[in-house]
From TrEMBL:
<dbReference type="GO" id="GO:0004674">
    <property type="term" value="F:protein serine/threonine kinase activity"/>
</dbReference>
<dbReference type="InterPro" id="IPR051420">
    <property type="entry name" value="Ser_Thr_Kinases_DiverseReg"/>
</dbReference>
<dbReference type="GO" id="GO:0005886">
    <property type="term" value="C:plasma membrane"/>
</dbReference>
<keyword id="KW-0675">Receptor</keyword>
<keyword id="KW-0808">Transferase</keyword>
<keyword id="KW-0723">Serine/threonine-protein kinase</keyword>
<keyword id="KW-0732">Signal</keyword>
<keyword id="KW-0472">Membrane</keyword>
<feature type="domain" description="Protein kinase">
    <location>
        <begin position="29"/>
        <end position="235"/>
    </location>
</feature>
<dbReference type="Pfam" id="PF00069">
    <property type="entry name" value="Pkinase"/>
</dbReference>
<keyword id="KW-0547">Nucleotide-binding</keyword>
<keyword id="KW-0418">Kinase</keyword>
<keyword id="KW-1133">Transmembrane helix</keyword>
<dbReference type="GO" id="GO:0005524">
    <property type="term" value="F:ATP binding"/>
</dbReference>
<keyword id="KW-0812">Transmembrane</keyword>
<dbReference type="InterPro" id="IPR008271">
    <property type="entry name" value="Ser/Thr_kinase_AS"/>
</dbReference>
<dbReference type="InterPro" id="IPR000719">
    <property type="entry name" value="Prot_kinase_dom"/>
</dbReference>
């Protein structure tokens, strides 16, 4: 189900049966609501009058599908078509001639990466770490085995595994995701995060679902405190 709303030059598309409107969402784009920043944009926490909490990702890119898209089209194409308990829900998106916004379900416990390397890391017991790892694996398994064509995430890392109020894992950030028809596709350049990229991908530029498996292995190593990757050390 999709609901379309137009207001003040903005076009809002809502995938879920939720009441969202342009004005209320734009009011959330304030400095005090920022919960994350990255090279692709800024993430805000938004609370609707109904009490619904959403995460609003404002991308740097200015146009859908253009050179400055910054994963906007990829997120819509993938997350807008799939549904799994351990994959973050895309609630909808907004765009105008100057900006693109992606609307997600809000994850109050942030990312696995921040939890593992934050002040409360010692409180994350082995049983909980194991549970989070299994849940994230279920999300990736769905992408690789239950989607047709299968989806390669291409940026699996601990900071892209988000945790809800019950610390349940949700795979997130599909800006680099790609539908895979097989055999291995050859990319024109390497995409992903330093420390998580499979060596064979770096050497050959060929991608298949195995590059996600390698990246997830790095996540597991970090979750078990075996090794910190360059990505974690740089944050």
């Amino acid at each position: 189900m999709r609901k379309i709303q137009k207001s003040k030059g903005w076009r809002l598309i809502v995938f879920q049966q939720l009441h969202l409107n342009v004005e209320e969402l734009l009011q959330c784009l304030k400095l005090e609501n920022i919960i994350g920043k990255g090279s692709a944009g800024v993430v805000y926490r938004g609370t609707m009058p109904s009490g619904l909490e959403v995460a609003i990702k404002q991308l740097v890119g200015s146009s859908r599908g253009g050179q400055r898209d910054h994963g906007f089209s990829a997120e819509i194409k993938t997350l807008g078509q799939i549904k799994h308990r351990n994959i973050v829900r895309l609630l909808g998106y907004m765009s105008n001639n100057e900006s693109n916004l992606l609307l997600y379900e809000y994850m109050p416990n942030g990312s696995l990466g921040k939890l593992l390397h934050g002040p409360n890391a010692a409180e994350l017991q082995w049983e909980r770490r194991y549970k989070i790892a299994v849940e994230a694996a279920k999300g990736l398994c769905y992408l690789h085995h239950d989607c047709s064509p299968l989806i390669i995430h291409r940026d699996v890392k601990s900071h892209n595994i988000l945790l809800d109020s019950n610390l349940e894992a949700h795979v997130a950030d599909f800006g680099l995701a790609k539908y895979f028809q097989g055999p291995a596709d050859c990319m024109s350049s390497i995409a992903g995060s330093f420390g998580y990229i499979a060596p064979e991908y770096g050497y050959t530029l060929k991608v298949d679902e195995k590059i996600d498996v390698y990246s997830f292995g790095v996540v597991l190593a970090g979750a078990n405190n075996w090794e910190e990757t360059g990505d974690e050390l740089g944050r």
